[in-house]
Queue: 2 jobs
Job 1
Amino acid sequence: MHRLIARGARRLKRARVFFGHGTDNAWDEAASLTLHALGLPHAGGGALYRRRVRAADAARARELIGRRIAERVPAPYLTGVSWFAGLPFTVDARVLVPRSPLAELIERGFAPWADPRRVRRVLDLGTGSGCIAIACAKALPKARVDAVDISGAALEVARLNVRRHRLARRVRLVRSDHFRALARNTYDIIVANPPYVGAREMKRLPAEYRHEPRVALAAGERGLDSVAVILREARAHLRPRGLLIVEVGNTEAVVRRAYPRLPFLWLQFSRGGGGVFLLTREQLVAH
Ligand SMILES: C[S@@+](CC[C@H](N)C(=O)[O-])C[C@H]1O[C@@H](n2cnc3c(N)ncnc32)[C@H](O)[C@@H]1O
């Protein structure tokens, strides 16, 4: 098994595939695809790597890695699974592959910014696979979560994940353009990983990203289309001392320039990633 994975990793490296959808190196990507082709669990431990592999199984693994290279498909679309905040999510090309640094914050129940035991209502804007909404429901046992997306196709996948995690009673899926279908509902926390890629960057994205829904990435000329709506409308849906937490990735510099007066708190993550700001309702109202 070890040799099979090592060979796969060498092929991925030689082919210069892009790593950015769940793994950040050739070995992990080859291991994930090989284990999937062989129907083996990820957490198999050292013994797994010493296993002998039958010729037919090895051929299946080589073929899957061949597809990864030839079609430049993100690996989670080939395996059908992606991990977020320690939880498995069903994914396919209808949804963005979960990878937000927000996972780290959600696993902590938003501490120290919120008290996880007191959060009752959360809104996940642009839920995609449902990963953020579902991870929030797991981390915040008393919370009910509204998970909004404009894409009906994405919500079908989110529905599979809500069922997979048995959270239908606490996670409500809503088809809506931003806040439009939410009437006057208010939340303790609004969390969003909206589309934020600008037009120039869209053209330069590695081929893997072209398999993801355009609506999940593209956000107009400067990448601000969705963020601008959120900044304008969030305060009407936040409770007193409520939090708005939004990922804008490397559109951070554009956001800072476009809103010089907003007192953004840019969060730090120990597992990497950034470009996530936090604002309170009171700060939004004051500015
Ligand atoms: C960057 S993806 C994030 C998906 C998921 N939350 C995650 O972190 O993996 C952005 C999501 O926002 C949704 N979206 C785009 N425009 C929207 C809009 N106007 N209203 C609601 N959702 C929107 C897309 O369909 C997509 O699922």
Job 2
Amino acid sequence: MYKEMDINKAFLALESGPVILIGSRFKGKDNLMTISWQMPNEFSGTIAITTGDWNYSFKGIMENKACTIMVPDSSMIETVVKIGAVSGRDCDKFQMFNLKKESGKIVSSPIIEGCLCAFECEVLDYIEKYSILILKVVRALCDESLGDKRVYHAVGDGRFTLDGETINLRSLMEDKLPLGV
Ligand SMILES: Cc1cc2nc3c(=O)[nH]c(=O)nc-3n(C[C@H](O)[C@H](O)[C@H](O)COP(=O)(O)O)c2cc1C
């Protein structure tokens, strides 16, 4: 049976995942931030994230109209949370967390080693009223050598859930899937 709940806690039930990292460059300095509010919004590589100018990364993303997205696996979970707890305004997160990086080929934002996937993205739009940044993936990379392929999802209150068993229900939704996936 349902009972009333606080509207401000509604997002906890919908938190999407996985938790991702965003790479950016501002005035020649690379930076990283953690994002759990992300949403793929079509099959052709358009992705929305919720962020804004309260984060230092935002300046770099808007300056270059570009960023990178990385999908870390569960071996990096503590580092990913720590990356989201400090600001590039005050530190160099690559040094602080001993992360190896290279620049993207199409965009100048950094890609760190050791993530399951890395996407170079261009900014298509920013909906300021709702702090929604719309990104277009222009290059996609994946590292299939990584052992633990589990990603993790933010509950929204400091807890995280790790991916578990994979259940294949393709046969029930074949005509809803894009070709080639
Ligand atoms: C697990 C986790 C999830 C986060 N999700 C978001 C998010 O979806 N949007 C956002 O703007 N900030 C999010 N943050 C906060 C930023 O990562 C944080 O403010 C970070 O310090 C920004 O770094 P910067 O100032 O160097 O850009 C999250 C932080 C953590 C730890």
